[in-house]
TrEMBL record:
<dbReference type="InterPro" id="IPR018298">
    <property type="entry name" value="Adrenodoxin_Fe-S_BS"/>
</dbReference>
<protein>
    <submittedName>
        <fullName>2Fe-2S ferredoxin</fullName>
    </submittedName>
</protein>
<keyword id="KW-0408">Iron</keyword>
<dbReference type="InterPro" id="IPR001041">
    <property type="entry name" value="2Fe-2S_ferredoxin-type"/>
</dbReference>
<dbReference type="Pfam" id="PF00111">
    <property type="entry name" value="Fer2"/>
</dbReference>
<dbReference type="InterPro" id="IPR012675">
    <property type="entry name" value="Beta-grasp_dom_sf"/>
</dbReference>
<dbReference type="InterPro" id="IPR001055">
    <property type="entry name" value="Adrenodoxin-like"/>
</dbReference>
<keyword id="KW-0411">Iron-sulfur</keyword>
<keyword id="KW-0001">2Fe-2S</keyword>
<keyword id="KW-0479">Metal-binding</keyword>
<dbReference type="InterPro" id="IPR036010">
    <property type="entry name" value="2Fe-2S_ferredoxin-like_sf"/>
</dbReference>
<comment type="similarity">
    <text>Belongs to the adrenodoxin/putidaredoxin family.</text>
</comment>
<feature type="domain" description="2Fe-2S ferredoxin-type">
    <location>
        <begin position="2"/>
        <end position="105"/>
    </location>
</feature>
Length: 106
């Protein structure tokens, strides 16, 4: 299990215990984290699970694959640390991960 901290646009903090092998998006949906819409259910076919990865965690979460980069073109207010949370797989190496949720989703 890894602890993931979601920070909503309004600053509200949500701490979640996440199972290894699940995704950051799945855990947000499972725990009713506001702002993660996940319209495609994790198929990397939309940009409604867009998050900003805390800079300290960029190396641990890795670079987006080309398909994810294409989908990020549909997200609002993309930044260098933007990721689709459906593409970040939880592991023990991500224990303590912090992601911020943008004001609106693509």
């Amino acid at each position: 299990m890894a602890k993931i901290t979601y920070i909503a646009f309004d600053g509200t903090v949500y701490d979640v215990e996440a199972r290894d092998g699940s995704t950051v998006m799945e855990n947000a949906v499972r725990n009713s984290i506001p702002g993660i819409e996940a319209e495609c259910g994790g198929a990397c076919a939309c940009a409604t699970c867009h998050v900003y990865v805390d800079p300290a965690w960029l190396e641990a979460t890795g670079e987006p694959e080309p398909m994810e980069e294409d989908m990020l073109d549909f997200a609002s207010d993309v930044q260098p640390n933007s990721r689709l949370s459906c593409q970040i797989r939880v592991s023990a190496a991500l224990d303590g991960l912090i992601v911020r949720i943008p004001e609106s989703q693509g």
